[in-house]
Amino acid sequence: MLAAPRMGVARGAQQDPKHGSRRLHRLALSLLYGALRGVCTKSCLSPERDLAIPNQIARPRSQGNRSGRKTSKRAASRRHDLNREEPGRAQTDESRPSGSKSGFHTFKLSEPLLRGVAALGFVEPRPIQAKTIPAAQAGRDVLGLAQTGTGKTAAFALPILERLLTGRRPGPRALIVAPTRELAMQINAEILELGRFTTLTATTIYGGVSMSQQVRALRARPDILVACPGRLLDLHQQRKCDLSRIEMLVLDEADHMFDMGFLPDIRRILSALPRERQNLLFSATMPREIRSLADRVLSRPHVVELEHSKPASTIDHFLYPVEQNRKLDLLNVILAGDDFTSAIVFLRTKHRARRVARDLDRHGHRAIALQGNMSQPQRDRAMTGFREGRFDILVATDIAARGIDVANISHVVNFDLPNTPDAYTHRIGRTGRAEESGKAITLVTREDAAGVKAIERKLGQKIPRRFIECDALPKTPASTPQRGGLAKKRRGAGRPKPEPFGSGVQDGRGAGRTRRAQRPKGAGPGRSRSRRRS
Length: 534
What we know:
The chain is of the alpha/beta class. Helix content is 40%, strand content 12%.
């Protein structure tokens, strides 16, 4: 038994048996003391402290308060006044004064949703959220009309997530229909962020990509389905998308959904849904003729209107009168300003969008085009590059005017005047979001006078004008596209036009002599062709 301990004893101790036994005795006492100390320390811990340790690990610590200390009441009140702060700076339960009922806690959301709201940096609900979420939680139909960038997505996403958490059943149970692929992906991303601490699932359905991956996602029976009308109907007709379990329907950008192009698809989707369901419609604009169609879908809705026909107060919008052939020159001057960080430039046609993006790129800007002829991977790369800052200018058609939320857009430039006053509201709403300031500039010509009057009549106010001398603008080397789109190059342009056979053409074998006269007497066409071959 003493062989093993002697392996750790010094050489001098092996020579003296008494010295070795005393050292081994001290080693045994120290081990016994350490073991008894660990047992006593563990038994002295209180049950409350043992239970508090997992909660502290699970609770995400704020980036602005790494020490874990409670924030002061003064700092809490300052954060309470802000509408939205950066992620990691949201007010937590520890920093909120005891007994306070402000913020998203007034909606009585479940704890996982409150954690998701705090992770996104939301502190106080926006007006559209405060007036629609309680009615949606009560099961009523809702029609929400508000300006772009006011938080309509969270206004319908939070009630959906809260309802799906109460009783879990196979899905899909909630359907959100969006007009464009980009908007569908953006809605899905925000839902996943809000429900990041839950076990709920969501998927997107849109065209331009293969169906196989979307079919596999539908087989998993997700709780929430975010879809575009065309691909949704294709999958439903193929019996690969079951809509019989839908409990909540959301039509985002409802005015665009009820447009003539989408109305037949929307009617077919409504006929495939259960009659007993909750309907939520949200949009920035709702014309009178379109609102009558929305009333057929909603049953005694809770209507919320928050000056939806006017741009947000954070947007400084004005007009620049300019000649058509100097628009690109003025655009380069605007983008060279000190207050420019990133911009969206809107045009009417796909060809003009590609052309202006190419001209801006040649002028030294990091510009990318976004238009309907691009494939879905190309559109994804364009939007991802613009969001991540690899491109600072997005040249787009109205495909990007609906619901696209990109942070820190300083300028929106209407290179072409929009076709309708509602499109003007949607376009300039890409800036000035989340209560940040932004500029919306529209380049107008003499031909746009009627369109400008229609927009001002819709807004109920006159849009300010700013003037600049066209002669003072530096000329851009690239050519500016004209209003009719790209001028097609005439076939044979740059070459002399061939004269008809028999006319006098100088060909080097005698001035003024015709080709017919130059042939030998009696020579036919076949003979002349064989002679030319030789």
